[in-house]
Each structure stands twice: as C-alpha cells, then as structure tokens.
Amino acid sequence: MITRSNLAEQLKEYQIRSKHDWASVSFFSSTSNLNSSRVDVAIFVIWELFTLAFLVFSAVSLYFRHLKLAIILLCITLLLLLCMRIAKHVRLARKKKRRMLLPLSM
C-alpha cells in the first residue's frame, strides 16, 4: 500500500542518490556550485581545454607577429565561450522544465 510516508521516504532516497556535490566546474560559471552529472563536467572541462588552447595559440601567433591569425583565434575563442554559455543555459532550462513536470503530490 502506498502511503505518504513511503512516498516521502522514496523521494528522499532518490534525492540523495541523484545529488552530486561538485566543485565549480568552470570559472566562467555564474554559480559557485553546480549540480551536474559527470558527463556535463567532462564536456565543460573539454570546452575549457579548447578555450585555453586557442588562447595559447593566439599568444604564440602574436609572439611571432601574425596579427591576423591572433585576431582570428581570439574571435574563435570568444565564440566558443559564447556557445558554452548558451549550452549551459539551455541545459539548465531543460532540467528545470523536467523538474516542474514531477507530480506535486510527491
């Protein structure tokens, strides 16, 4: 028989299982702690590595006096940061929408 206490207990167990305490994934993040899955963390780390690589390549091209290449790499880096920010907001909006679809009786 399903009772309110059983539902509350199941919900509490589900929340404990699904909770991830991660440190801040990104210094580009607007929040200090993210409740993200490991896949999200891996994706953001890869994006940040690409961003860092583009910044380093841009600095190297400036060192060798290739101004056009440095500007192109900086533009690519800025676009990459913008895409990362948009992807994060879209993912959080989907998560919020899914959370709102849970039955309120729980």
Automatic annotation (TrEMBL):
Q: Which stretches are transmembrane?
A: 41-63, 69-87
Q: Which UniProt keywords apply?
A: Membrane, Transmembrane, Transmembrane helix
**Name the UniProt record assigns to this protein:** NADH-ubiquinone oxidoreductase chain
